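Throughout our pipeline, every protein is held as a single compact record rather than as scattered files. Nothing more is needed to write down the fold, since each code stands for a local backbone conformation. The record that follows is passed on verbatim for readers who wish to inspect the format.
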Amino acid sequence: MTVYGIGLGPGEADLVTVKGKRLLESAAVVYSPGRLSRTVALNHVPEERIGDLDFPMTRDPDELRRAWKEAAAEVAARADSEDVAFVTLGDPNVYSTFGHLRRTLDAFHPEVDLEVVPGVSAMTAFTTALGVEIESGTGLALREAANGAAPTGPDRMVLFKVTDAPATHEKLTEAGYDVRFGRRLFMEQGETVVTDDPDELAERDYYTLAYAEREGVERDVATAEFDGVESGGSA
């Protein structure tokens, strides 16, 4: 049978894809690695079909490997006779807990069939919420900015895990970037905040992102207007 890694999207229950919803409803058990993904999954799956897996928040490599092996063993055993799902916020292939499970299954249970069902990533939801258009020909970098980190270089960046917004903002503005923040966007849990003021986000929150654009960056955006023809005129 098959293990489906299903992206739930950024947090709103109705941003789950049609395919994701169909597979959630048909899976024998739906494993959730955390409280928030479980909350979203419960909009589509009865509680008795939700399974919990332990993925500890630690940097101890031995403890992490033990937890991943135990989780993979449980999932593989269930998938031996029925389809199961593993859900994650965002997309399963973008900074997701599912990556740990997939690699461990590949290493210790290669007989298990895996299929990934994409979800709306937090990064694309974030640019939508801010009204940021990443036009054709534009480069956009994705960077982690935990604990006050402020990576620089690209003209446009989406930063995630911005757990110290004031420190990140100070460093980026000194480096010549305009910065805007969003917290818990398209999420049903917690307060949604969109702001240019990092002091509004002084309290740390894992689900905070930032969009940083270098000051004065030039744009060459195609429009429906033509050379020599004023807007509203005729040729």
Notes: The CA atoms of residues 68 and 114 lie 16 Å apart.
